Amino acid sequence: MGQIYIVLNWKIYASIADCFILPPYIRQLAGEVLSYNLKFILCPPAPFLSTVFEVLKPLPKNLALGAQDISHIEDGAATGEIAAKTVSPWASYTIVGHSEHRHNHHETNYRISEKASLALKYNLVPIICVGEEKRSGIATTFVEEQLAQSLVLLDKEALKKVIIAYEPVWAIGAQDPAPQDYAENMLKHLRKLLPAETKIMYGGSVFEDNAKDFIEVGFDGLFIGRASLKRKSLEGIINKIKDVINSRSTTQK
Ligand code: PGA
Q1: Domain 4-252: which topology?
Q2: In sequence order, what are the beta bridge partners of 8?
Q3: Active site residue 74
C-alpha cells in the first residue's frame, strides 16, 4: 500500500490561537503513525504559515505545510493576491481549484491549470480539486472534462507529480459524504485518465464514521475540512485509516 495523504484544510476557521494549540498535537499524531506511511499536509490560512512553521519546527518527515491557494500571477501588480514565491519558504504543497475558491473568484479551469503549473515552478506540489456541483449519473463526464481543462498546461511528467482531490461539491460542508460506491466509481474513472503515479484523494464531509470507506476502495488519501480542526475527530479518522492498513497487511500475510 502506498503513502496515504491527509490534507487538513483549515479554510478560514482557524484563529492565530489555534496555530499554537493544534499543530503540536498534529505533530505528535504524525509521529505516532510514521510506520503507517501516512503523510499530513496542514493548510492553515496563508498569513499563519510562518507561525505554524515556527511552532512545528523541525517538521517530521511525514508532516508538511500547504497553502490554500496561490495567485496565477507570478510577480508584480496584483494587489491582494498571494504569490507562489510568498508561500514557498514554508509550504511544500498548495491547494488549487478548491470549489469554494473557484466559486468566489469565478475561476476558469484554465486559471487552475495556470496556478498548477506555477506551483510546480516554485516546488509546490499542487493539490488540484475537481468535482461535480450536483450528484448525478453523468458526473464522471463533467469531472473528466473539468480535469482535462484544469491540467491543460501540464505535460505527462508534471502530471505524475500532482495530487488530484476529488471533491463532489454537494458533499463539501454538508452532512454526508458521497456514498462509497459512488466515490469508487469516480475513482476508477479518474484512474483511467491519469498516469499510475498520480495520487487521487477524496474530500467532502470526511469524518470518523466514513473515513475508512474511501481508503478501502483505494483513494490515496483524504481531504478534510471541518474535522481537521477537532482533535477527537482527527484522531478518530486516523484510527480508522490505521484499521484499514492493518487489515490489509493481515490479509496479505
Ligand atoms: P468538509 O470540507 O470536510 O468540511 O466538508 C472539505 C473541503 O475542505 O473541501
Answers
A1: TIM Barrel (3.20.20)
A2: 42, 224
A3: no
Please give the Cα distance from 150 to 126 (Å, whole number).
11
Of 5, 101, 223, 230, best ligand 1 pocket probe by most atoms within 8 Å of the beta carbon: 223
Task: Note down pLDDT in tens along the chain; length 253 residues.
Answer: 789 999 999 999 999 999 999 999 999 999 999 999 999 999 999 999 999 999 999 999 999 999 999 999 999 999 999 999 999 999 999 999 999 999 999 999 999 999 999 999 999 999 999 999 999 888 999 999 999 999 999 999 999 999 999 999 999 999 999 999 999 999 999 999 999 999 999 999 999 999 999 999 999 999 999 999 999 999 999 999 999 999 988 876 6
Q: Is 100 a catalytic residue?
A: no
Atom 1 of ligand 1: nearest residue by CA position: 225
> CB under 6 Å to ligand 1: residues?
9, 167, 172-173, 203-206, 223-227
Q: Determine the distance from the C-alpha atom of residue 40 to the mean position of all C-alpha atoms in its chain, rounded to a whole number.
A: 10
Q: Separation of 115 CA from ligand 1 center, angstroms?
A: 21
Query: Of residues 114, 132, 167, 184, which has the active-site annotation?
Result: 167
CA atoms of 190 and 202, how far apart (whole Å): 12
- Each domain of the chain, given as residue ranges in start order, spans 4-252
